[in-house]
Amino acid sequence: MTKGLNGLKGHRITVEPSDRHVRVVRGEQLLAESDRALVLRETGCPERYYIPADDVRLDLLTPSGTHTHCPFKGDASYWSLPDAADLVWAYPDPEPEVARIKDHLCFYDVEVS
C-alpha cells in the first residue's frame, strides 16, 4: 500500500489546472470568472475549483473571523457576502503538497463549462 499526504493511507489530494471555464454567480452578481482555475480533488470530498485572486471580485467580499484547519491543506481564512457567511475560503500559506492553491480562492457553488 502507498501512503497519501501526511502519511494517511488512502488519502489523496491532486491539484492541476482546470480545462474548464469557471463562473461564480450569486443572485444577479458575478463574483468570479476564470479560465485559469485549479481543480483540487481530495479523497472523500467534492471537486473544488480554486480561482486566482485576480479573477475574483474581492471588492464585494468582506473578511470573516472564521478560520479552520485542514491537516492536508493548512489554515483557511474565509470571506462573506452580506447575505452569505463564509461563502469563500483560501489557504494563505498552504501545505507544500498543495502549494499551487496559494493566492487562489474557493467558493462553495460554482458553474463550470
From TrEMBL:
Membrane-traversing stretches: none
Every DUF427 domain range: 22-109
Entry superkingdom: Bacteria
Cited InterPro entries: DUF427 (IPR007361), DUF427_sf (IPR038694)
Pfam families cross-referenced by the UniProt entry: NTP_transf_9 (PF04248)
Protein name stated in the entry: DUF427 domain-containing protein
Natural source organism: Streptomyces pactum
